[in-house]
Amino acid sequence: MRRVRTVLGDIRPEELGVCDAHDHLFLRSPRLPGQELDDVPAARAELAAFRAAGGAAVAQWTPYGMGRRAADLPALSRATGVRIVCATGLHQAAHYAPEVLEELSGDRLAELFVAELTEGIGTTGVRAGLIKVAGGFHGLDAHARRTMTAAAEAHHATGAPIAVHLELGTGGPDVLDLLCGELGVPGERVILGHLNRFPDPVVHREAAAAGCWLAFDGPSRAHHATDWRMPEAVRALAEAGFGDRLLLGGDTVTAGARSVDGGPGMPYLLRRVRRRLAAAVGAELVERMLGEHPGRAFGADWK
């Protein structure tokens, strides 16, 4: 029977509720110096604001070694009433010091992912509920292939879903060829993030036809087509028969992007994106994208 693995334990998919399918409560990277998400009170306030806007769950895609603060997540979930799904996995090499990657050489990467999914993250007892990996710009480098191979091994061992950061929305076909082709991961167990940043309708349809979940995640930045092209892309996919493969997320990656610090933050997804999409494709589909679909995407037959 499928269950969503939250930081407070496994729940039925239908219990997840309105979900921000891709976001970050905590995140630290050498590529974002001085912009870390590393403040527990701010994270609590952001979750409370999301809850007040009607949110019930958040999938935090922050993977291993990027300051995900797994030990703090259960208390935050209890205090705010928002369910949290935590990630294992590994981001692009640029987000890590060389010695961190050296420690995870050989088969140790897949072993780490499996351990964090089944036994818990370090000594916290918090089990991850998804595997986060990342592609490169219009392709996959050796690091991406290695991390995705380890993610596929961990998926086959546990049943966990794999969430993929697509750099500026590109590289989707290469990810499909590797994960779903060569490595045998079923499309329905793969969540592709940021496709909305590179709104190629052919790539979108190919990914959806492979059974993958398409996460439209993150408010627009100056160089992204995220918001103004999103309704068109979602409508095209729905009209092509792929409305049941869609997710919505906020992807807050810096402190200044939090709503409690003056940015759009997690509530923006429900305050603005929900309304804008409903005008284009109808409220019924949008509510399924926020409610029913995340439970299906993150639910797994855990082994």
UniProtKB/TrEMBL annotation:
The modification N6-carboxylysine is found at residue 132. Keywords: Hydrolase, Metal-binding. Coiled coil: none annotated. InterPro entries: Metal_Hydrolase, Phosphotriesterase. The keyword Metal-binding applies. The keyword Cell inner membrane does not apply. Belongs to the metallo-dependent hydrolases superfamily. Phosphotriesterase family. This is Phosphotriesterase. It comes from Streptomyces eurythermus. The lineage of its organism: Bacteria, Bacillati, Actinomycetota, Actinomycetes, Kitasatosporales.
